[in-house]
Amino acid sequence: MSKHTPGPWIFEERVAGFDILAPESVYYVAEYLGVDCGVIDNIADACLIAAAPELLEALENLLKVHEGEGGTQHNAADMARAALAKAKGEDAVPYSHTTLPTRDHM
Q1: Is the dihedral of CA 91, 59, 27, 38 positive or negative?
Q2: What angle do CA 48, 78, 103 make, to 5 degrees?
Q3: Are 34 and 16 a contacting pair, CB within 8 Å?
Q4: 9 neighbors 29 (Cβ within 8 angstroms)
Q5: Do the Cβ atoms of 7 and 87 come closer than 8 Å?
Q6: What is the DSSP track for the chain?
Q7: pLDDT digits (tens, 9 = 90+) for 28-58
Q8: What is the pLDDT of residue 103?
Q9: Which positions ≥6 away from 38 have C-beta within 8 Å?
């Protein structure tokens, strides 16, 4: 499997869907043009998709800490909380090197 586009990812609402973008890349990560779905569902989906890199990073870190293989134990919970907040579309919990834009902060 090839590597995914590095995060952070953000989403932009469109009239009938949303785009998932990687601001440091020239490519779109995903595009969703949902005709039959309500706007609320689209935003929830966009938040979850856009949080994927942070969720992956936080989960990998938690496993390393749990298994005693390193990781950054001092901020593992903060990383997880920030990624979950972004995935849920809530205001992001500040985290050191990762900017977690939300719909209100783009």
Answers
A1: negative
A2: 35
A3: yes
A4: yes
A5: no
A6: -PPPPPS--EEEEETTEEEEE-TTSSSEEEEE--SSS-HHHHHHHHHHHHTHHHHHHHHHHHHHHHTTS---GGGHHHHHHHHHHHHHTSPPPP-SS-----GGG-
A7: 888 777 666 555 566 777 888 889 999 999 9
A8: 41
A9: none
pLDDT score of 67:
86
Given a cut of 80, whether residue 27 has pLDDT beyond it is: no
- Domain map of the chain by residue range? 1-50, 51-92
Return the pLDDT at 56. 92
Q: pLDDT (tens digit, 9 = 90+) per residue, 80-105?
A: 999 999 889 886 444 443 443 444 44
Which tokens in the block code for residue 35?
A: 């005709």
Measured between alpha carbons, how far is 35 from 32 in angstroms, rounded to an integer? 9
